[in-house]
């Protein structure tokens, strides 16, 4: 009889723990980095990059007034731009900057925007550039239009990200993901080449993000975290909105 009552007692307790876990995840998704922003997040996307055929010269642009301040805001932006190759690139920059401000809030966005393999690589590189000396807090700003090492990597507003199809690399087929890998170049103001390579894809592979091929995710982005030129000694980095 006592054993029967023990099982009856423990089942509601387990259900309670599961409920708390779900509530915790929901709370984190709506939690802001710092205080709640006073301005509404505005994002626009322009340009066309083919999903299937390599076309050198194609370009895409993302413009936005500030970085997302919560997982929920980042997801809202993904709904707006994540269906395009250059949208995934912009979302990678946004997630990385969010990670710099709060790895607890930024990491879920990184995980949602990368293949599981590249998510691990990205997390390792973010730790390197944002927590280990010399800390490069301006790394993401180097990819925003108007920034330069001379002006402290302080970009013009609204923020603009420019992406183009890689001229020297054709689209490839990944057998692992059963998907077309799209090689792109992200314009940079902090690297001698003027850009860094990055590759994206859409996949329906199980246990991968992207909601079964609805959104592009990042396949490879290691060059995004290569050391950019050191900031000017006379013009400090003023942070990003």
Quickly count the domains: 1
**Global mean pLDDT:** 89
Task: Summarize the helix and strand pattern as letters.
Answer: HEEHHHHEEEEE
How large, in whole angstroms, is the Cα Rg? 20 Å
**How many separate helices?**
5
Helix content: 25-40%
Number of strands: 7
In terms of per-residue confidence, which ranges show pLDDT below 50 for 5 or more consecutive residues? 1-23
For the terminal residues, how far apart are their CA atoms? 63 Å
Task: Report on the architecture of this protein.
By secondary structure, the chain is α+β, with helices and mostly antiparallel strands. The protein has helices at 2-29, 71-81, 85-101, 103-112, 116-131; strands at 43-47, 59-64, 159-165, 172-174, 179-187, 195-201, 217-220. The longest helix is centred in the N-terminal third of the chain and has 28 residues, at 2-29. It has 5 helices and 7 strands; from the N terminus they run αββααααβββββ. Strands 1, 2, 3, 4, 5, 6 and 7 form a 7-stranded antiparallel sheet that branches. A hairpin with a 4-residue loop joins β4 (172-174) and β5 (179-187). The chain starts with a helix and ends in a 21-residue tail after the last strand. It has one domain.
What's the helix and strand layout?
Blueprint: H1 2-29, E1 43-47, E2 59-64, H2 71-81, H3 85-101, H4 103-112, H5 116-131, E3 159-165, E4 172-174, E5 179-187, E6 195-201, E7 217-220
Antiparallel strand pairs: 1-2, 2-3, 3-5, 4-5, 5-6, 6-7
Concise summary:
The protein has one domain (43-225).
Q: Which structural traits does this protein have?
A:
single chain; 241 residues; alpha+beta; seven-stranded antiparallel beta sheet; disordered N terminus
């Amino acid at each position: 009889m006592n054993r029967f009552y023990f099982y009856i007692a423990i089942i509601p307790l387990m259900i309670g723990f599961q409920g708390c876990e779900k509530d915790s995840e929901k709370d984190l998704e709506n939690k802001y980095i710092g205080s709640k922003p006073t301005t509404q997040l505005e994002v626009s996307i322009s340009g066309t990059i083919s999903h299937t055929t390599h076309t050198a010269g194609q370009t895409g642009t993302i413009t936005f007034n500030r970085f997302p301040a919560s997982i929920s805001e980042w997801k809202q932006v993904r709904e707006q731009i994540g269906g395009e190759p250059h949208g995934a690139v912009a979302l990678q920059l946004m997630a990385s900057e969010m990670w710099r401000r709060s790895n607890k809030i930024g990491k879920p966005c990184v995980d949602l925007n990368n293949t599981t393999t590249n998510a691990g690589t990205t997390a390792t590189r973010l730790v390197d550039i944002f927590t280990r000396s010399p800390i490069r807090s301006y790394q993401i700003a180097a990819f925003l239009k108007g920034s330069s090492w001379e002006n402290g990597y302080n970009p013009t507003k609204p923020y603009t990200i420019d992406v183009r199809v890689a001229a020297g690399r054709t689209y490839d087929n990944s057998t692992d993901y059963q998907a077309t890998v799209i090689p792109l170049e992200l314009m940079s103001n902090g690297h001698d080449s003027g850009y860094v390579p990055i590759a994206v894809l859409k996949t329906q592979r199980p246990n991968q993000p992207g909601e079964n091929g609805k959104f592009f995710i990042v396949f490879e982005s290691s060059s995004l975290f290569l050391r950019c030129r050191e900031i000017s000694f006379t013009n400090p980095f003023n942070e990003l909105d």
